[in-house]
Specification:
globular, F-box-assoc_interact_dom, Neuraminidase, BnaA01g31760D protein, F-box-assoc_dom_typ1, 2 domains, SCF_F-box_component, mainly beta
Amino acid sequence: MASSKRSWTLSLLPLEVIEEILYKAPPESLLRSKPTCKQWHALITSRRFIYEHLRRSPQRFIRTNETVVHIMDPVTGRRSDSPLPKELYDVRVMVHCDGLMLCMRGNSQYRNTKLALWNPVLRKLAWIKPSTCFTTSDYYGMGYDGKKSRCDYKILRFTDRRYDDMHNKVEIYECKTRSWRTLDAKVDWDVDITCKGVSVMGNMYWFAQKTNETKLYILRFDFSAETFKDVCFAPPSRGDNYLACFDGDRLSLLQQDQETTSPIEVWVSSKLAGDGDVLFSKYFSVSRPDLPALLFHTDMAHPVYCIGKHKRVMAWCEGDVYDGDDKIPPTCVIFYEIDEGGVRRQLETERHYYGSGYSGTFLCGYVYVPSLVPLSV
């Protein structure tokens, strides 16, 4: 009875007030609210509402292990777990764009790979058929033409020339038409394998190096012009490099060596809008004797991180915990909050024991914004 009365009271409010209330609700709650009435259903499923809700939604961390998907709020540390779709068991690479996860599933066999588009909120999954085949040496990106409709998503595929120079080509998949086409583009760079690509404002960015050159730079693929461009030189590499979106329209670059107590450096770019110059400046650095290694071992999954307010690094990563005996240490998944003063918060979210040697506790992770954007492949 109480629930019925509450729904009736809300129905008396102006639609614009209801809309503002719904913008503050998580997308999972909005799914449950759709059957409330035809007016709410029409609002929640409208393109305008979906993208405005996405714009206001906070970032989350998403990671997968063999059978479970974990989503964490990096501000509160609260986590939710749900079964990973069986079709995505063994997913190795993910790219995020507008709440959609582009997932590459496969193993060490060169051509035994598959590609899928997944919305974890809607629990919808669509397989993408290759023009010929997908390989383990492929790189992927996802975005949209900012000059046209945002919902017309595109998927980029190119092959790393270091591993597959014979099949080196660049392809675009149009989700709207469900078709691939080959671009007249040459891959003459090496993407840093420690640095995942990140989608910002509809374009993809990587940390890369040109053939026979020593300088590192930020490589962009513009989905409007469908061209690659090196947009700026990158800060000197200091170990592993990790890219993420910063403030919605910039990049952050986190650097750290693979060793405990190694300093952490955080750089941020100028705004990416337009064709103007992009520059990186050092945002802050941390050098403390108690710093963890965010990538503890080369076989471990890369850390998932974002830069918070007041110059904070929030990272979710794996590490070994030594208890002071000769036993094989457990592998833990740990959430860190680090600022210029060092580690401010450390939360162990999982602990796993293995009989011998290292075995990863999660396969891949990404920064993610939950959304109601539907699949259109």
